[in-house]
Amino acid sequence: MTVLITGGGGFLGAWIIRRLAARGIDLRVFDRRDDRGIVRAIAGGVADRLDWRTGDVASLADVSAAADGCDFAIHLAALLTPACAENPILGAQVNLIGTLNVFEAAKARGMRGIAYASSAGVFGPDDGAIPHPTTHYGAFKLACEGSGRAYWQDAGLSSVGFRPAIVYGPGRETGLTAGPSLACREAVAGRPYTIGYSGRADMIYVDDVAAAFEAAATRPFEGAHAFSLVGEVADVAAIVDGIRANVPGAAVDWSGPPLPLHPVIAPSPIEAVLGALPHTPLADGLARTIGFYRRGVTGEG
Ligand SMILES: NC(=O)c1ccc[n+]([C@@H]2O[C@H](COP(=O)([O-])OP(=O)(O)OC[C@H]3O[C@@H](n4cnc5c(N)ncnc54)[C@H](O)[C@@H]3O)[C@@H](O)[C@H]2O)c1
């Protein structure tokens, strides 16, 4: 089996590569750049042996060429919330058209299915159960879920979209919600850091999200699903306390508005479709993240 991973050069991609490579699955990475730094840091030497194609996910020709010979697609390539806010047209080209391109390429090649990154950003600030996005990013992600259902209805192409809120852990360095992970890194380095939001949010450890993608790629499922991935709700003050529990005296604080997504995300019946999945407690996830930056080496455990 060969799995295509769009956006595989990013944070989440690195953790998914680590899991799938450990199972001996052939991987093809598609990303706009050939920068293997995060993948090397998280997955180790496998980074240099990957079949890596560069291209733009907004181009059907690029995606189609990369998809040849693949049996399943994991679709991660996207612009995050700040980039979509800055340039909504480009955001739609990458996040919306890009997703349709992956579905088209998968349909044309008779792939078994697609697992794609949606987001808890589909919910907006007022409700964690009924989607009502207030960002371009969330609006594009919600539209992708609808198209996933249309590809199942029209073409019998199975898909599952995952909606995490804040994904944290080693290697998370960009996007609106990178603050907690960057605070771990900076605390270890002995530098001050201010997390740029306030209030509560759902925090899920990156390897738990990677495990959901691994399950979708390796366990049979049918239909078009969109599942919220729920971790642990935490106030940013509790995150700072959690970091200081590992790094006493760390000069970490926070400042800024609440995030534009509801803190409490309603759980979805994901395990009924994909089976049991890991749930890393926040305290363990923060300790692992800090441990990774302390070691400053590859192969986080
Ligand atoms: N990190 C989170 O907290 C979080 C939360 C919810 C959903 N998500 C979703 O998970 C996915 C992965 O997020 P991440 O945190 O790994 O982000 P990331 O920015 O680290 O990775 C995204 C990757 O996509 C690539 N990419 C961007 N535009 C591209 C294009 N036009 N063509 C080809 N490749 C392109 C980038 O080069 C990058 O390697 C995204 O779809 C994101 O929306 C992330």
Number of helices: 11
What is the domain tally?
1
Q: Order of strands in the sheet with the most strands? A: 3-2-1-4-5-6-10
| H and E order | EHEHEHEHHEHEEHEEHEEHEHH
Low-confidence stretches: none
CATH architecture title: 3-Layer(aba) Sandwich
The CATH homologous superfamily: NAD(P)-binding Rossmann-like Domain
Summing up helix and strand content along with how strands pair, one would put the structural category as alpha/beta
Percentage of β-strand residues: 15-25%
Here the CATH topology equals Rossmann fold
Each distinct ligand: nicotinamide-adenine-dinucleotide
Mean pLDDT across the residues is 96
Shape, please? globular
Name the CATH class.
Alpha Beta
Oligomer: single chain
Number of strands: 12
Q: How is the main sheet built?
A: 7 strands, parallel
Helix content: 40-55%
CA(first)-CA(last) distance? 26 Å
Give the C-alpha Rg.
Answer: 18 Å
What keywords describe this structure?
single chain, 301 residues, alpha/beta, 11 helices, 43% helix, globular, binds nicotinamide-adenine-dinucleotide
How is this structure best described in words?
The protein has a single domain, classed as Rossmann fold, CATH 3.40.50. By secondary structure, the chain is of the alpha/beta class. Strand 1, helix 1 (11-22) and strand 2 form a beta-alpha-beta unit. The relative contact order is 0.14. It has 11 helices and 12 strands. The strands form 3 sheets. Strands 3-2-1-4-5-6-10 form a 7-stranded parallel β-sheet, sandwiched between helices. The chain has helices at 11-22, 37-43, 60-67, 81-86, 88-108, 136-155, 179-189, 206-218, 236-246, 270-274, 282-295; strands at residues 2-6, 26-31, 51-54, 72-75, 113-117, 159-164, 166-168, 193-195, 200-205, 224-229, 232-235, 252-254. It binds nicotinamide-adenine-dinucleotide.
